[in-house]
Amino acid sequence: MKLEILFPILILTAGFLYFIIPRIIMKYFTRPDIFIEVNPNEGLVRGRLMIRHLPNESVKYANSPEAENLYELNWKFNLIIRNNSENSAYNIKMYSTKPEVGKLLFAKSVNENKPLAAHEELLLPFEYKQEKVCKLKDIGTLDSKEPDFFKSYRILLDYKNSGKTRFNSVFEASTKAVSYKKISNRKIKKNWC
Predict the structure, then answer these.
(1) Can you name the CATH fold of 30-191?
(2) How remote is the C-alpha of 98 from its chain's centroid?
(3) pLDDT per residue as tens digits for the range 38-76
(4) Which helix (H) or strand (E) holds 135?
(5) CA distance linking residue 177 with residue 188, whole number of Å
């Protein structure tokens, strides 16, 4: 081939690659950096609300140190979902693990139809209620900053970028760390609620 023909073909190819490669990277590889954090709103709100005395034949009085009582504990937290990138996140879906005991109540949920723009954050207040049986002499062990179920509690966010590519953020409450590993839809439906 002659140089007069080859040179314009090389210039056109280089221009095409210069134009198309950034578009491919933006569509398939540029992810929104979604960070998740749980902060105490008021922490343990009602410390040790006694619901009832559990009768025992060996203990005559409810105020005896060996008496067992049923207590309700109520913690309040704020879940903060923050976009720490220049890319908007779309179709955000939130999944979490269910506590084995107690109730987890979110005041509001994530709106899937509203994108999370660059450097924006969502604030989702939630509370956790749990009933515990405890002896009166061990009542001080009930007060804690976080409930016991935080040792196994995880939150998963499933979202897309502007090119409709799926990404995930997983928050581990025990370590307060966020990991960005991809999880298949089948595993999400099987393991998350």
Answers:
(1) Immunoglobulin-like (2.60.40)
(2) 12
(3) 988 876 666 566 666 666 666 666 667 777 777 888 888
(4) strand 121-135
(5) 19
User: From CA 51, how far away is CA 72, in angstroms rounded?
Assistant: 7
Q: CA 122 from chain center: how many Å?
A: 12
Residue 117's pLDDT band, with cuts at 50, 70 and 90, is very high
**Nearest 5°: phi and psi at 73?**
-115, 140
Name the amino acid, one letter, at 16.
F
Integer Cα distance of 133 and 54 in angstroms: 9
- pTM, two decimals, is 0.77
How far apart, in whole angstroms, are the C-alpha atoms of residue 164 and residue 83?
A: 17
What is the Cα–Cα distance from 128 to 147, expressed in whole angstroms? 8
pLDDT tens-place string over residues 131-162? 887 777 777 777 777 888 888 899 999 999 98
Domain positions in the chain are: 30-191
Sheet containing 90-96, strands listed edge to edge, beginning at the edge strand earlier in sequence: 90-96, 154-160, 166-172, 177-179
